[in-house]
């Protein structure tokens, strides 16, 4: 049915169709899909991602449409995300991380789900007891706290149809609990894509001391040391390497400029 909808009607931030789909997603779909996806990849149902038949059922009816048309994230470096939050218009709210609600298998902070733009009203209406309105500076403090714990940030995009990328929530992610991240790593970019951010890492070999910090902290396995020299691979733009590099050899730059 979606293939026959007018793209202009569907793709706008205030599109009635998009908002209706977001309400259904928030209230009835998100947490069950996160629960199943987590346990199918790394939890007690992980046989589903290993056996041929159950893997096919996980990949194509669930993970592929979810990642390509429903919901996925775009990494942001901390400083760029803070800048974006301070420039946001409209209300911001915070509530418990939907991934951690789904699987209950992560010890990172729970109230880190920062809904923005059209996501704010939808999640406040769907979960009035779980989400509360906050000021931009409280959102910044949550982001910076999570960054200090070694977490990375993704801004999630809902309903990727009609070339639209509507940002509705800031997630503070970890490699052991973020289900979209786990799906991407377990199933691959072709099945469950993460949208590459607008920033890329670079490395100055002249001041790199080959400590391996960038390799250790990169959640996307995009860094390595070759003969003691830093090498940047397929960078998604989260900025953890630059934030943790002890010498400043790792830096972020925007490919848009």
Report the uncertain regions: 1-11
Mean pLDDT: 90
Helix content: 40-55%
Q: Structural class of the secondary elements?
A: alpha+beta
Query: How many domains would you count in the coordinates?
Result: 2
What's the N-to-C terminus distance? 39 Å
Report the sheet-strand fraction: 15-25%
Oligomer: single chain
- Rg, alpha carbons: 18 Å
Largest sheet: 6 strands, antiparallel
The spatial strand order of the largest sheet comes to 1-5-6-3-2-4
Outline type: globular
Order of helices and strands: HHHEHEHEHEHEEHEHEEHE
Which labels suit this protein?
257 residues, alpha+beta, Alpha-Beta Plaits, 2 domains, two-stranded antiparallel ribbon, 10 helices
Could you please describe the fold and organization of this structure?
The protein has 257 residues and is α+β, with helices and mostly antiparallel strands. It folds into two domains: 2-187, no CATH class; 199-254, Alpha-Beta Plaits, CATH 3.30.70. The protein contains ten helices and ten strands. It has helices at residues 7-11, 16-41, 52-70, 78-86, 98-103, 118-126, 136-148, 179-187, 213-217, 240-244; strands at 71-76, 92-95, 113-115, 132-134, 152-158, 166-173, 199-203, 223-226, 229-232, 250-254. The protein has a six-stranded antiparallel beta sheet with strand order 1-5-6-3-2-4. Strands 7-10 form a two-stranded antiparallel ribbon. A hairpin with a 2-residue loop joins strand 8 and strand 9 (229-232). Helix 2 (16-41) crosses helix 8. It is globular, with a radius of gyration of 18 Å. Residues 1-11 have low confidence and may be disordered.
């Amino acid at each position: 049915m979606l293939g026959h909808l007018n793209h202009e009607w569907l793709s706008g931030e205030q599109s009635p169709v998009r908002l209706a789909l977001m309400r259904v997603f928030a209230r009835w779909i998100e947490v069950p899909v996160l629960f199943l996806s987590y346990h199918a990849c790394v939890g007690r149902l992980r046989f589903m991602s290993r056996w041929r038949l159950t893997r096919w059922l996980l990949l194509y009816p669930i993970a592929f449409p979810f990642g390509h048309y429903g919901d996925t994230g775009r990494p942001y470096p901390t400083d760029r995300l803070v800048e974006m939050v301070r420039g946001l218009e409209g209300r911001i709210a915070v509530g418990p991380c939907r991934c951690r609600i789904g699987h209950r298998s992560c010890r990172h902070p729970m109230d880190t789900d920062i809904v923005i733009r059209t996501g704010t009203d939808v999640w406040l209406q769907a979960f009035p007891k779980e989400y509360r309105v906050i000021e931009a500076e409280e959102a910044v403090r949550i982001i910076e706290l999570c960054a200090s714990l070694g977490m990375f940030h993704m801004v999630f995009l809902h309903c990727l149809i009609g070339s639209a990328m509507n940002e509705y929530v800031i997630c503070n992610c970890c490699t052991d609990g973020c289900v979209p991240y786990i799906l991407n790593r377990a199933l691959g970019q072709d099945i469950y894509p993460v949208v590459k951010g607008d920033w890329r890492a670079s490395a100055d070999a002249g001041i790199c001391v080959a400590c391996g910090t960038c390799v250790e902290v990169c959640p996307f396995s995009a860094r390595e040391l070759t003969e003691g020299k830093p090498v940047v691979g397929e960078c998604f733009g989260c900025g953890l390497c630059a934030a943790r590099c002890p010498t400043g050899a790792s830096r972020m730059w925007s490919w848009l400029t």
